[in-house]
Amino acid sequence: MDSTAATPANQPTPAVPLTVTDEQNSALLTDTLNLLGTKSPTGESALTEIDRWIEVLKATERAGLAKVTQELQLVREQLSSADTKTHDLAETLASLGIETGKVAEETTNNYAAPLAQLGKLLMKLGSQLSK
Questions:
Q1: Scanning 7, 33, 44, 105, which has the fewest C-beta atoms within 10 Å of its C-beta?
Q2: Rounded Cα distance, 66 and 9, in Å
């Protein structure tokens, strides 16, 4: 192989399983709560946070998170689309909040209260958007 040859543009990204520690889970949850607590998070910061959550949820082996992951992916699509109706995004956020609340109810560790808070914030945001 010639060392001066250009690197192909389409380098495959190796699929490496993501390992997430409890500290990383806590940091992600705290970051998300802080982001939602700001007056007006930017679209870019929201998409970055959604991407982080999708990757973490894909890496977990816990049952019952498929609906949350699906709702997150839908929120991401809606935020990325120029023709998304506010009402549709509001409904998706509310649904994501409900699903997050269900996960919080089933959680037995230190994540229950912050997840419940996150669920409530998502439902509140959905409600505010639908007005």
A1: 7
A2: 33
| Sequence spans of domains, the chain | 22-129
SS3 annotation, 92-109: HHHHHHHHHHHHHHHCCC
Answer yes or no: are the C-beta atoms of 29 and 49 closer than 8 Å. no
Question: pLDDT of 19-66, one tens digit each?
Answer: 667 777 778 878 887 877 766 677 788 898 899 888 888 888 777 788
Determine how many CB atoms are found less than 10 A away from the CB of residue 25.
Answer: 16
Mean pLDDT confidence for 4-14: 51
Q: Which residues contact 99 (CB under 8 A, 6 or more apart)?
A: 67, 68, 71, 119
Q: Which residue type sits at 7?
A: T
